[in-house]
Design a protein that fits this description.
Blueprint: E1 10-12, E2 15-17, E3 23-25, H1 27-52, H2 54-65, H3 68-86, H4 88-94, H5 98-122
Antiparallel strand pairs: 1-2, 2-3
Helix pairs in contact: 1-2, 1-3, 1-4, 1-5, 2-3
């Protein structure tokens, strides 16, 4: 929630403002923010892996669901959910650092995009 708080703690899904107006993210908001960054990099690495191993990895991914992008998407969602719940302990240390969580999430997305762009540019 944006703005100032005059008294008491204000709560909005995943975000809390205490009496001093400091933001504290919820545990799941934090852990899934971290999961976003990590999953983005893992997804980019999977793109590189399947493109460099067409006879094995790409063929398996096609056979698994009928199309490699469907398998890729399912693996991404699975990684995102598993990491989101698994990172709960680490998330508790970062709940009062929303900027760090945002930097990790955005950094992962940008890094993933750059990995894919660099791979195709150099290929």
């Amino acid at each position: 929630m944006t703005g100032t708080v005059s008294s008491g703690a204000t709560k909005q899904r995943g975000v809390r403002l205490n009496q001093q107006g400091e933001v504290r993210l919820g545990k799941l908001t934090t852990s899934f923010g971290l999961s976003l960054g990590i999953t983005s990099v893992l997804s980019a690495l999977l793109v590189i892996l399947k493109e460099t191993n067409e006879q094995t990895v790409l063929a398996w991914m096609k056979a698994a669901t009928g199309h490699h992008w469907i398998t890729h998407g399912l693996l991404d969602v699975l990684a995102f959910v598993i990491l989101g719940f698994a990172l709960g302990r680490l998330a508790s240390r970062l709940q009062r650092r929303p900027t760090a969580v945002a930097v990790i999430a955005l950094g992962g997305v940008v890094s993933g995009a750059l990995l894919i762009a660099a791979f195709y540019y150099l290929a």
